[in-house]
UniProtKB/TrEMBL annotation:
InterPro entries on file: ArgJ-like_dom_sf (IPR016117), Peptidase_S58_DmpA (IPR005321)
Name recorded for this polypeptide: P1 family peptidase
SUPFAM superfamilies on file: DmpA/ArgJ-like
Gene3D superfamilies named among the record's database cross-references: L-amino peptidase D-ALA esterase/amidase
PANTHER family xref list: BLR5678 PROTEIN, D-AMINOPEPTIDASE
Phylogenetic placement of the source organism: Bacteria, Pseudomonadati, Pseudomonadota, Gammaproteobacteria, Vibrionales
Domain of life, per lineage: Bacteria
């Protein structure tokens, strides 16, 4: 057995024994989710209707109170092929004043309007005696599996999602992740968390994974693209485009400049998986803190947080791949689930 085959066998042994992948330097939080950061909740609206395979996901840092008390926030645009709303003001002011809403590219406008309506319900004087509001809406293109021209997301779906966020939430082919592809496999929503003892803090990550070329995929450092491609009866390659959104939350009292530095380290996690942020990919990371900056954390103390950002991003993408289920959608297009393919490899080697 050559070296690569041996490494794949070890990887499959681990998959079979633990049913999970992902190297861990840091211990995870209690649930290994972004909601391990106190106060953060997540909600989904999933649309599974024939050729319409799409949805909405909302990350709420402080329920409706965030408008009155914005949170420190930093943004890193790794590759700017994207159609977000709200990034310019966050870049200027370094603060987040609404929940973060994720959806498909052509429904960003509906998500914006729905978020505005939600925020006005909670704060009736917005735009009158109070300033206007800066919703943060981020997107990926799910047009391979979803009839994106249908504009199937409504303001009501967005408002309902924002009104029903919880600490427990589904991952994989749900919410905004319903129609997403990742490394030519089924992508979607993934999450993870890291506990950072030296800072007495937790970092949580949620991703909307819709990027990557299968030929470049690495799992724990092992090139797996050709091995997985050989299992597919029909195969439609995905270029390293389509986008990924990374949302990071922490209870460490970091300022906006430091959070921007943390957000940039998402790129290291994507690189471990084989991504190079190809042309046509909108790769954006947003990091916010749920705590006011009551004490100064020196930049020299940030190294564990930076390492955790890379690790948690990689683990969150793996979570999206492992939790996703196969979806067939627009024009009969289909994306298989990574877990099903790994199960096939286990059977072949037994």
């Amino acid at each position: 057995m050559d070296s690569l085959q041996a490494r794949i066998s070890l990887l499959l042994d681990r998959w079979r024994a633990e049913r999970q992948l992902g190297f861990r330097h840091f211990a995870s939080g209690k649930h290994d989710r972004i909601t391990d950061v106190a106060g953060v909740t997540v909600g989904h609206h999933t649309l599974n209707d024939g050729e319409c395979q799409t949805g909405v996901t909302a990350i709420s840092p402080k329920a409706a109170g965030i408008y009155a008390e914005p949170l420190p926030c930093g943004v890193a645009v790794l590759n700017g092929f994207a159609k977000p709303i709200g990034l310019v003001q966050i870049e200027e002011l370094g603060r987040l004043e609404t929940p973060i809403v994720l959806t498909n590219t052509l429904c960003v406008g509906r998500a914006f309007s729905g978020t505005v309506r939600y925020m006005v319900e909670k704060n009736p004087q917005i735009g009158r005696t109070l300033p206007t509001v800066n919703p943060l809406v981020l997107e990926c293109n799910d047009g391979y599996l979803n009839d994106i021209q249908a504009l199937a997301i409504t303001e009501e779906m967005v408002m309902d999602t924002l009104n029903h966020t919880e600490t427990e939430f589904a991952r994989g082919s749900v919410g905004a992740g319903r129609g997403m592809s990742c490394f030519a496999l089924k992508g979607g929503i993934g999450t993870s968390s890291c506990v950072i003892p030296s800072l007495n803090a937790t970092l949580g990550v949620l991703v909307l994974a819709n990027f990557g070329a299968l030929s470049a995929l690495q799992l724990e450092g092992i090139p797996m693209g050709e091995t997985l491609q050989a299992l597919l009866n029909t195969y439609s390659e995905q270029q390293d485009k389509g986008s990924i959104i990374i949302v990071m939350a922490t209870d460490a009292p970091l300022d906006a400049r430091q959070l921007k530095r943390v957000a940039k380290r998402a790129g290291a996690g994507l690189g471990r998986l084989g991504s190079y942020w190809g042309h046509g990919s909108g790769d954006i990371a947003v990091a916010f803190s749920t705590q006011p900056q009551s004490q100064n954390i020196e930049d020299s103390e940030l190294d564990p947080m930076l390492r955790a950002a890379a690790e948690a991003t990689e683990r969150a993408v793996l979570d999206a791949l492992m939790q996703a289920t196969q979806v067939t959608g627009f024009a009969g297009h289909q994306r298989p689930a990574l877990s099903d393919l790994l199960d096939q490899l286990v059977v072949q080697r037994n």
